[in-house]
Amino acid sequence: MRSFQELSVFFEQEVNKRFFPEEPKNLYDAAQYIIGIGGKRVRPILVLMGNEIFGEVGQDAFKVAASIELFHNFSLIHDDIMDKAPLRRGAETVHIRYGESTALLAGDVMLVRAYEEIASINASSLASIFTLFNRTAKEVCEGQQMDMDFENRAEVLQNEYLQMITLKTSVLLAASLQMGAILGGADDTDQAHLYEFGKNLGIAFQLQDDYLDAFGDPDKFGKQVGGDIIANKKTFLLIYALENANPQMRNELIELLGNNEADKVSRVLQIFRACGVDQWANAQKEHFFNLAMNHLHALRVDEAKKKPLIDLAGFLIQRES
Ligand code: IPE
Ligand code: IPE
Ligand code: MG
Ligand code: MG
Ligand code: MG
Q: Which pLDDT score, from 0 to 100, does residue 17 have?
């Protein structure tokens, strides 16, 4: 079983091919642009790892991996419009660079390209992968809608937040691993364990994303730090602070959410710090990391084969970008 870094080299060759024709230039350049500005490629590598833990990585795994990365990038283009985000991967977002209408279309065409990749795999796994892909894609939309609905709600409970991030983020990591496992010939029990590993890891991954959005180093993060605070995103940091701040800080926080003054981000961060959200964030990440590990341990393959997944999981919850 190869490491994340080793598999990344293989996948990068695959993703470096041009997925789109030349014309209309604006449309396809926009689609190619987001792929070209990088990213960690976590989900496609999870497809390859999910496959390699059970068997040899074949051409279909690369197609599914490319499909998943295309879908992920499509969701990022639309997400950046919804979140009014100026920066992604240390570069201008697609809608800032190409305009909102082209960004919408570029996202659409990437989704169609994602389906073309899936449709070209061997018939023996096509039905199960296609079904899982569609279920997951719908769940991502549901999670994204919940995320936006929560912006306008005064109170969101921790378990509502967990449901939202499970849908918008975790299920795609989980499905990537399961698709790999399907291609590797894993049985239903092992597929389910790998899916649950990915789901819990995905929750920890989004917790870290929300943490970095507030506390990340702007030079490393690649996105606008404080973007979630400006948009009144109901992240676990904000929910925890609203639940645990003293009455005076709680009132200040509620007042800050009601406006968008220049010092909003720094004042909200101050309250986050005063409430000890750091320790809470670490404890939460560890909790979901451990849940993920339980499922990985239950997987009926050689322990040595699990190491690259354990390493990747550790990296993902400590990452700085
Ligand atoms: C960003 O995902 C969107 C989330 C679900 C948090 P990544 O952090 O994997 O983004 P890239 O692909 O590496 O840029
Ligand atoms: C995005 O969550 C999840 C999807 C794109 C489906 P975020 O809005 O937190 O992702 P970033 O922080 O913009 O990457
Ligand atoms: Mg966003
Ligand atoms: Mg978002
Ligand atoms: Mg985020």
A: 85
pLDDT, tens digit (0-9, with 9 covering 90-100), for 89-138: 999 999 999 999 999 999 999 999 999 999 999 999 999 999 999 999 99
CA of 123 to the centre of ligand 1 (A): 30
Q: From the DSSP assignment, how many helices (H) and strands (E) are in the chain?
A: 17, 2
pLDDT at 16: 84
Chain-centroid distance of CA 117 in Å reads: 20
- Evaluate the CA torsion angle 58, 71, 169, 196 in order and state its sign: negative
**Nearest protein Cα to ligand 1, atom 12:** 39
Whether residue 110 contacts residue 31, with contact meaning beta carbons closer than 8 Å, is answered with yes
Q: Provide the pLDDT for residue 80.
A: 98
DSSP helix/strand/coil, 321:
coil
Q: Quick check: helix, strand or coil at residue 235?
A: coil
Q: Is the CB of 72 under 6 A from ligand 2?
A: no
Whose CA is closest to 79, among 66, 94, 97, 91?
A: 94
Q: At what angle do helices 188-215 and 303-318 cross, to 10 degrees?
A: 20
**182 near 125, Cβ under 8 Å?**
yes
Distance CA 165, CA 169 (A): 6
As a whole number, mean pLDDT of residues 13-28 equals 93
Closest ligand 2 atom number to CA of residue 140? 6
Residue type, position 127, single letter: A
The residue written with tokens 């943490």 in the block is 211
- Ligand 2 atom with the shortest distance to the CA of 143: 6
Mean pLDDT of the chain: 97
Name the pTM for this structure: 0.98
